[in-house]
């Protein structure tokens, strides 16, 4: 039985949602693999012993809270801690699996003068997208190849997270504790809102798109006044080092207005949250970066003219072969796929 199936069965058993057939299937597997039975018993202990926060009234939220508590337990014996860390690594995938993806979570120490003694870092592997529930009730969708770090418990004055890659936030409102998102190029401060942040290491720009509420955006390390973003606006900060210093102040931070007639599910900036791959005039070179993360492949375009092709399309459940075949109908090119390597030719 593969890990996805095991994790799903364990999650359903803990939440009380498993059918008799699923329970029989899980029991048969655990009899054959006692190491997974011990893993289940540890999680079951925490499931029954720990009380979820008031907002965690559904199975997935309860399981997320379970993982937070288990990872922060400093009193557990060392053998149990060792198994707990293994459990967290697998069970974090369960939480993501319920939303269609795999996660890798790890815990590390911070200096003693910081607000929290434990820093949680969660990574969505290439080809996967997952959903997180933070300690304050904020919900985050993490796109493939992205990572986020945050303290195991927020301070009394602020809630700060750091993101690399792409994430969509639905922030729980808390006027006494502003929610702060830090990226390579920008800092966002909100009270309660929905927005998308994109800042992959290989990109030459960082984007923040506001869906609802209000967001205050400032450039990292800059003393200039922050920009107040309104719904259906996007701010772009370019990190192109070729821009001259004299033009840098006027060209690096740009605010764009999005079409309000387009639903959030079809916006290029947020369609990925709804498991849709949308192209809206981007060239092939830009599109390949999205497709590499989406399908966990490496794409090489061997003709510069092909890299300049622009596409308008929307996909949901298509394979990479089906996507490329559909794109061929509008622009002439050929492709070859060898395992995880894709080569594009004229």
TrEMBL record:
- Specify the domain of life of the species encoding this protein: Bacteria
Q: Where is the Protein FecR C-terminal domain?
A: 276-344
| Database matches in Gene3D superfamilies | 2.60.120.1440, 3.55.50.30
> Where would I find the FecR protein domain in this sequence?
125-216
> Which InterPro entries does the entry mention?
FecR (IPR006860), FecR_C (IPR032508), Ferrdict_sens_TM (IPR012373)
Pfam families per the UniProt record, alphabetical = FecR, FecR_C
Indicate what this protein is called per its UniProt record.
Answer: DUF4974 domain-containing protein
* Gene source species: Chitinophaga horti
């Amino acid at each position: 039985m593969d890990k996805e199936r095991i994790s799903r069965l364990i999650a359903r058993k803990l939440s009380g949602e498993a059918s008799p057939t699923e329970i029989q299937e899980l029991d048969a597997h655990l009899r054959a693999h006692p190491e997974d039975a011990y893993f289940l018993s540890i999680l079951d202990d925490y499931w029954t012993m720990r009380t979820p926060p008031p907002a965690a009234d559904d199975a997935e939220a309860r399981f997320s809270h379970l993982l937070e508590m288990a990872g922060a337990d400093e009193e557990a014996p060392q053998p149990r801690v060792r198994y707990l860390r293994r459990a967290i690594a697998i069970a974090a995938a369960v939480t993501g699996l319920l939303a269609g993806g795999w996660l890798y979570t790890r815990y590390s120490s911070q200096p003693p003068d910081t607000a929290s003694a434990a820093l949680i870092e969660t990574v969505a592997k290439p080809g996967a997208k997952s959903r997180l529930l933070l300690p304050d009730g904020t919900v985050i969708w993490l796109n493939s190849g992205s990572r986020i770090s945050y303290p195991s418990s927020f301070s009394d004055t602020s809630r700060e997270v750091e993101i690399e890659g792409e994430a969509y936030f639905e922030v729980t409102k808390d006027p006494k504790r502003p929610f702060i998102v830090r990226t390579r190029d920008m800092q966002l401060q909100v009270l309660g809102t929905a927005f998308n942040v994109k800042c992959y290491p290989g990109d030459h720009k960082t984007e923040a798109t506001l869906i609802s509420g209000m967001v205050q955006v400032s450039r990292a390390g800059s003393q200039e006044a922050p920009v107040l973003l309104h719904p259906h606006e996007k701010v772009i900060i370019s990190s192109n080092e070729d821009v001259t210093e004299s033009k840098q102040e006027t060209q690096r931070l740009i605010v764009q207005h999005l079409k309000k007639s387009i639903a959030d599910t079809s916006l290029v900036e947020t369609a990925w949250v709804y498991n849709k791959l949308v192209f809206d005039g981007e060239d092939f070179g830009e599109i390949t970066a999205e497709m590499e993360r989406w399908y966990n492949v490496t794409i090489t375009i061997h003709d510069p003219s092909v890299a300049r092709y622009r596409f308008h399309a929307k996909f949901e459940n298509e394979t990479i072969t089906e996507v490329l075949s559909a794109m061929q109908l509008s622009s002439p090119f050929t492709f070859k796929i060898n395992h995880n390597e894709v080569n594009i030719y004229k």
